[in-house]
Amino acid sequence: xxxxxxxxxxxxxxxxxxxxxxxxxxxxxxxxxxxxxxxxxxxxxxxxxxxxxxxxxxxxxxxxxxxxxxxxxxxxxxxxxxxxxxxxxxxxxxxxxxxxxxxxxxxxxxxxxxxxxxxxxxxxxxxxxxxxxxxxxxxxxxxxxxxxxxxxxxxxxxxxxxxxxxxxxxxxxxxxxxxxxxxxxxxxxxxxxxxxxxxxxxxxxxxxxxxxxxxxxxxxxxxxxxxxxxxxxxxxxxxxxxxxxxxxxxxxxxxxxxxxxxxxxxxxxxxxxxxxxxxxxxxxxxxxxxxxxxxxxxxxxxxxxxxxxxxxxxxxxxxxxxxxxxxxxxxxxxxxxxxxxxxxxxxxxxxxxxxxxxxxxxxxxxxxxxxxxxxxxxxxxxxxxxxxxxxxxxxxxxxxxxxxxxxxxxxxxxxxx
Length: 417
What we know:
It is a single chain. By secondary structure, this protein is mainly α. It has one domain (about 25-170, about 190-365, about 370-400). About 75% of the residues lie in helices and about 0% in strands. Helix 4 runs parallel beside helix 6 (about 120-130), helix 7 (about 135-145) packs antiparallel against helix 8 (about 150-170) and helix 14 runs antiparallel to helix 16.
C-alpha cells in the first residue's frame, strides 16, 4: 500500500512537470504552436466535424427512441457467440466501422451508463468497435496523402479484418465474471421479435422525452462532444510539432532506428511511427512521404491508423469518463490491433489482388483535391443510411432464423422374438 501511494505521488509529480514543460515550450515558440493549432483546427472542421455529427445525433436519438434496445434484443444470438457481448454491441460495431473514432467509445459509454452491458462487456466492446472510418482511410490517406487510390481498399480491409480479429481474441477476456443483471436467460421462451418490441417499448417509456426535446438534446450533446474532440486534436497537433522543434522525437527514434534498421526499415518510417504514436493524421502523412517502398509505407500507415495515437486515446478516455470501464485493456487492444493491421496490410500489399495496382503511382498531387465540408457531410449521411439499412436487414434475418425449428424423427426398432 505504501509503495502504491509512493508510485502515485511520483506519477502526479511527473505529470505536473511534463505539463509545465509543454506549456513553457508553447510559450517559447508561439508561431509554431499557432500554425500547428490551425492545422488541427482545419482537420477537425473539414473532416472530423462533418463526418461524425450525423452519427452522433443519430446514435443519441435512436438510443432515446428505444431502437438500439430493439436491435440489441434482435442481434443477441449473433453477437453473443461471436464476441461474447450483448446484441446492442452490433449497433456500436456498425456505427464505429462507418463513422470512425471515437463514436465506438461514445456509444459503448452510453450503453454502459444505460446498464445494457457489464463492465467487462463494455471493455471488450470498446476495444474492437472504436475504429477508423473508411472516408479517412480511402479519401484522406490513400488519395490525399499517398496519391494512390488503389491503396484505399487495402488500408480499409486490413483495418477492419484486424479489428474483428481483436474482437474474437478478446471474447475470452473476463469470461469468469457474471453477465449484466437483467440479461435475458437462455431458458426464456418468449419469441425474439416479441422480446425486442418489449425492449423498445420499455426503453421509450423510461426515457419519456418528447421527440423535439430528444432531438434538441442530441444535437446539443453531439456538438459539445465534437468540440471536445476538436480540442484534443489541436492540443496533440501542437505537442507533436513542439516535440519536433526540440528534436525530442529524434531522440526517441534512436533506439527504434537501431532495432529496425537490420530489417530494412528507413529512418523516415521510424519518425512516422513516433509521430503516429501521438497523432494519427500527422503519422500517416509522414509515412506517405517517407523515402521507402510502397509496401513498407503501407504497413506503417496501417499500424498507425490501428493504433490511432494518444490523441484518439484521450478522446476515448473522455467519452468513457464517469463509467467504470478501465482503459488498460483498451490500450492493450490498440497495440494488438496495430500489429494485426500491419501483418494483414503486408499480406494484402504483397500477395493480394491489389498488389499490381499499388506499386505504380496512379495520381499526381494536382489532380486530387481533398473533399470539402459539404462533401464529407453528404457522404457521412449516406453512410449512416446504409448502416441503418444493413442493421435493419440483419435484425430481420436474425428474426427469421430464430423462427426456424429443426424437427427430428427417430425410428424405434422393435426387437424380434
